[in-house]
DNA sequence: TTGTATGCGTTATCAC
DNA sequence: GTGATAACGCATACAA
């Protein structure tokens, strides 16, 4: 295999990005002075500063990030690895995170793991290698290697979107179990006894798992048999939510309320119900989780759990900035998630709270 | 101001990430051999390879990206700058882009510009400085400095989401003007004569501008006065869409059809209509653009323009890979956008196609 | 197959 | 206030 030179070998000088040296030469100063102009302008004379910046502009100079990281051992870059960018679940929180970092002159690098711990490990490796000064991670579930990596590389990180008193790591978030239990309580209050849940895959996803456990806990607390909960597990997506609802209604005992692991699944379930000619909430109630924008725009609007997206993002940024600065970030932060009652949740159809409703829907 | 050492000064050795040298020492080989093991394993004996990898694992070694970029002058990293991550407009395309890059062993860095050319310039600078081998950009509108930067840094890039024969740059996308004109044609076919448009800010956003022009073109082609088009310009968001629709209906001539610059605005408009007690499409028709997931889940489902998200993403990746490899990527690629007819578009209320409908709604 | 030596672009520690 | 110059961690041409 032959290697052809990428650029014209006759003008090698112009073929490559300008460096500090080029700028220095053109400005008639040393590289040290140029570096100072860029990093600590106050230490340099107004006059030379002007000359240097003129040269910078003329050459279109941009500092080489790698070289800078190598020499300075700091990148002013934080990383965030979120499970997905395909829907807006993490968008608002990430936005707030980014805004707060901006105030500190920190650049944010975002990667998505597609809910795969292995992929996440790879992303962590990549971000750490890139010199990320600190990392934002979602949830506690990840490979041991991931944690080992963060440890040996001494990269500060914070776990967001969850608050779990049993976990030792610094985190900021809410108690997913408690929140889902509270929502389920509301559902049970309305007389529903035949429940189903559509959840994301619970392996490697503690948020999903805790939400599921929250439903069970609420049932047990009322003396209901948790075994009575019908469960469909499927990746987060609208079409999967629709299919899951179809599957639930097509066989087995008919639920009067379907609790969804998040708003995306719930929006899908709503769609699925509509396709079956079911009225929500008259025939069946559906609830979501997260309170992202679609929760409000679907018809009927979703009863859901409102999650403190922006506070988590902003708080996470502050914790990380403190950590990087060698300060004590303090303990993990628990934020409140609140129930948002909207039209998709109604009383159990045609029955008193004590009498489970019979099947109201048959076949396709 | 005092500077305290971040780590225990007594064990400076363990306080820092392991380097190639550390691995080499532990494995009893030279740094060159370790480097080869990592980059071209085939050039190294099975036996030494094992020793080296054992050392790598034991130390939790991860190569320093900056140093690597500095020495190798290539990062195997591409960058993408999209206008927003807050909604799913670019999610599917980006996903496809990423998947294709993965096949080539390339890592993707994503940044968002919040629809601001200045911010985008900054992001370009950042990604270029980080050594991105190539860049994916959305649309042609950006600061001259941005283009100058890409030029002087010799960073290959491709413009996606648009196909504009008047622009010389390599691009892959569809003709936004033509697509919107086609959609408007359908609307006019149904007898609508009193049109309104809710558009994103058109400055620095050629997609929005072209879509707007598409509506005008369709009207002109039918002999309608483009001046008759009522226009509200507002940033993409659901609530803005809802407000915009309210504003349109609250004063001035009542439109029978509202064309929205994208699905997010359209979903908002739908919401706004519902709040006013208007039935869609009986009282008023509403259309979107992009065909993202919410288009299907709102009630009524949105008539919209289906955009070849995944093909754009995948195609863009291929163009960039070719460019980076010094190959000829060929000419810009025009993809087709197609009309997706759904329930939100109906015939003009209570009137023959030739007779514009009178006001059907008054006050708040 | 492996080791040696050099340079990548920047920061920072010194002198001046 | 400014200029040499030594790291920083890695890849690679070259020598062995």
Topology:
The structure is a homodimer of 364-residue chains.
Chain A: H1 20-27, H2 31-39, H3 46-59, H4 65-72, E1 77-82, H5 91-103, E2 107-112, H6 117-129, E3 134-138, H7 144-152, E4 157-160, E5 171-173, H8 176-189, E6 195-199, H9 206-221, E7 230-233, H10 238-250, E8 257-260, H11 263-275, E9 285-287, H12 294-297, E10 304-306, H13 309-324, E11 333-334, E12 338-340
Parallel strand pairs in A: 1-2, 1-3, 3-4, 4-5, 5-11, 6-7, 6-8, 8-9
Antiparallel strand pairs in A: 10-12
Helix pairs in contact in A: 1-2, 1-3, 5-13, 6-7, 8-9, 10-11
The structure holds a DNA duplex (16 and 16 nucleotides).
Structure commentary:
Chain A has 364 residues and is an alpha/beta fold. Chain A has 2 domains: 65-173 and 312-335, Rossmann fold (3-Layer(aba) Sandwich); 176-306 and 340-351, Response regulator (Rossmann fold), CATH 3.40.50. Chain A is built from 13 helices and 12 strands. The first copy, chain A, has helices spanning 20-27, 31-39, 46-59, 65-72, 91-103, 117-129, 144-152, 176-189, 206-221, 238-250, 263-275, 294-297, 309-324; strands at residues 77-82, 107-112, 134-138, 157-160, 171-173, 195-199, 230-233, 257-260, 285-287, 304-306, 333-334, 338-340. Chain A has a 6-stranded parallel β-sheet with strand order 2-1-3-4-5-11, sandwiched between helices. In chain A, helix 1 (20-27) crosses helix 3 (46-59) and helix 8 packs parallel to helix 9. The longest helix of chain A is centred in the middle third of the chain and has 16 residues, at 206-221. The first copy, chain A, is elongated. The relative contact order of chain A is 0.11. Chain B binds a DNA duplex (16 and 16 nucleotides) through residues 19-21, 29-36, 39, 43-45, 48, 63-64, 66-73.
